[in-house]
Amino acid sequence: MRKSEIVMSLKNINRVFVRRRFLRKSIPFYALEDINLDVKKGERISIIGESGSGKTTLARIACGLDKPTEGSVFWFGKDVMRLKSGEFRELRPKVQYIHQNPYASINPSRTIFDVLADPLKRYRKNTNSLEEEVAELLRSVGIVPPEFFFNKYPRHLSGGGLQRLAIARAMIPKPEIILADEIVSMIDMSFRAAVVKLLIELNKETGITIMMISHDIGVARYFSHGGGRIAVMLRGRIVEIGSPNSIIGNPVHPYTRALILASPVADKQLALKKRELLLKYNIQKEVWESEIMKMKGCRYAFFCPFAQNECWNERPKLLDVGEKHLVACHMVEKMPAWELGSAR
Amino acid sequence: MEGLKILKIENLSVVYLVREGSIKASVDINLDMVEGSIMAIVGESASGKSTILEAMTRTLPPNGRIVSGNVYYRKNGDYMNLVEIKEEDLRKLRWSEIALVPQAVQNALNPTMRIFDHFMDTVNDHGVDWLQRDVWEKANKLLDMMGLDGNRVLKSFPHELSGGMRQRTLIALSLLFEPKLLILDEPTSALDVLTQARLIKVLDEVHHKLKITMIFVTHDLPVAAELSDYMGVVYGGNLVERGRTEDVIGDPKHPYTKALVASLMSVAGNVEKVRPIPGEPPSLLEPPKGCVFHPRCPFRMDKCSKEIPPFFKLDENHYVRCWLHEKE
């Protein structure tokens, strides 16, 4: 892999939030721990994890909205923290962020035309009329007929429509990387696939790199299929990363397996089978977050039926199990064959 | 449908009065609930799925009006019309016969009260004179059934519990008077996948243990598929299809249900076959003429934009509101 192919790289990122307590010792909270991730040009990478796994913190740090406590972020080979402000301003538009809640990220008092025209005035280079360019943008995200929406307000669009508008807006500065943070979680079921498909099409047509954050492993699978990667996060750590075929078809980490088994499917027979299997990979109990943070070993040890001594005491490292499929688990050798391997 | 019907909804129509006119949130809903089964109502946000629940429990917001229709609830062999009975009689039914579990958002439990006080409050409010000790014991047992450590949870404040624990606590609270019908509003929304899987399992166990009838609304089709026996699909205020869950999911007849099933991004099935649904949902203020789905429907005919299709019966359980099935 040539170095120039990597557009974004996270090196040994740690992000610690300190929870202060009155008259008592403060507790450090590791939102991210030793994250290493290289994002290749044109890649569709999904980050999945439950709430509190640090996936949004990761995205915020990756696009420069937050600073890591330790470690560094590289954009196009340059360390973001060491850039001069002029250089940073030049690179800044190249990395765009799409927020989770489209109802909050778009100004409700401006027309749809204005929402796109304002940033366009700043970034456009050619001499077409502004109306034409806005229309072109709206058409590219499937808001048609564009002229009909010029004088409409964001409230006239559905959640899916708003998220399309947000995507159109993010495309204006011709970014190289888009970070899409849970963009389908707030919108309706029937638009989800359409919005994710729009991102896939943008990626295929313009070669833009897209990192999508999601809690839904099904969404990640659809987004990253055909050449992308999925990274699974658990309490601030990446526990497994690989192609959708290896993550869904042959997951190794018991947490990844539990996640797959826990996500509901429409097929009732399969659902019952999955419910049985889930017990094999997940101990269902309530554990205080502070207890998990205190321990040295694997973050899944409390819930892992396979946990041994070393799991409690020693942090597993991400190791390659073949075909660029990395897993952080001490028990890789002891994992039984994946039962749902052929369920695709 | 086989089995006794505990609840019958007939031709229920509900509107919300707003400045711009009236929002037709439920149009001519017909639904039967078989005693001891689980029914799911699936729909997108603003499709009117919660309105059905609110109308049948008469908890509509102040601007909601039941325009027509009846809701019959069977008690001791007789059917009583929930739409017409007096408020006091309805109050007696609530919680002891019919319990409603709201969404587990922050405001469902009082943040200044311990969980046990919520149980005590419910008991006092219903004029039952149970000893505090008995309530504790009952509550403990119910929480245990939910997979929670009763003694610890009862002493806690709501903020000390996680979202999944709060949701299960609410369900335990709703089961306090052993209701016959449990209504759940979006029981799994805003929960993590693992928590959600656990809640589905718990609900299934409770259902089998207590033989309780459940009805829940959800926007999540797979969740409905995993938990329910019967399913109703709501689109734009209309119930477009209903039937046994296997039939509706396995062999959907309405184009909307078909499209919805095809647009699921799941961990199972072929990813290449995921098909997004084009178009926008209808405005309930001015719903399209004829079938509500016709502007987005790939199979539309002339008739679809003119006449509202009635329910066509495909078999004993399976009904669909679509002109395509007129001859069948």
Keywords:
heterodimer; A: 344 residues; alpha/beta; Rossmann fold; four-stranded antiparallel sheet; B: 328 residues; eight-stranded mixed sheet; 12 strands
Structural description of this entry:
Chain A is an alpha/beta fold. Chain A has 2 domains: 42-64 and 75-247, P-loop containing nucleotide triphosphate hydrolases (Rossmann fold, 3-Layer(aba) Sandwich); 250-336, no CATH class. Chain A contains 14 helices and 12 strands. An 8-stranded mixed sheet of chain A has the order 6-7-8-3-9-10-12-11, sandwiched between helices. In chain A, a hairpin with a 2-residue loop joins strand 9 (229-234) and strand 10 (237-242). In chain A, helix 8 (189-206) packs parallel to helix 9. The longest helix of chain A is centred in the middle third of the chain and has 18 residues, at 189-206. By secondary structure, chain B is an alpha/beta fold. Chain B has a domain at 5-97 and 219-325: P-loop containing nucleotide triphosphate hydrolases (Rossmann fold), CATH 3.40.50. Chain B has an 8-stranded mixed sheet with strand order 6-7-8-3-9-10-12-11, sandwiched between helices. In chain B, strands 2-1-4-5 form a 4-stranded antiparallel sheet. In chain B, helix 3 crosses helix 4 (132-145) and helix 4 (132-145) packs across helix 6 (163-174). Chain B is globular. The chains are: A alpha/beta (344), B alpha/beta (328). At the A-B interface, helix 7, helix 8, helix 9, helix 11 and helix 12 of A face helix 7, helix 8, helix 9 and helix 10 of B.
Summarize the structure.
The complex is a heterodimer of chains A (344) and B (328). Chain A has 344 residues and is α/β, with parallel strands linked by helices. Helix content of chain A is 36%, strand content 21%.
N- to C-terminal distance of chain B: 19 Å
How many beta strands in the DSSP annotation of chain A? 12
Q: Helices and strands of chain B, in N-to-C order?
A: EEEHEEHEHHHHEHEHEEHHEE
> For the CA atoms, what is the radius of gyration of chain B?
20 Å
Q: Determine the oligomeric state from the structure.
A: heterodimer
The CATH C-level class name of the domain at 5-97 and 219-325 in chain B: Alpha Beta
Question: Pairing-aware structural class of the strands and helices of chain A?
Answer: alpha/beta
User: What integer value in Å does the Rg of chain A equal?
Assistant: 21 Å
CATH superfamily of the largest domain in chain A: P-loop containing nucleotide triphosphate hydrolases
The averaged pLDDT of chain A comes out at 87
What is the fold named in CATH at topology level of the largest domain in chain A? Rossmann fold
**Strand adjacency order, main sheet of chain A:** 6-7-8-3-9-10-12-11
Could you estimate the helical fraction of the residues of chain A in percent? Answer: 25-40%
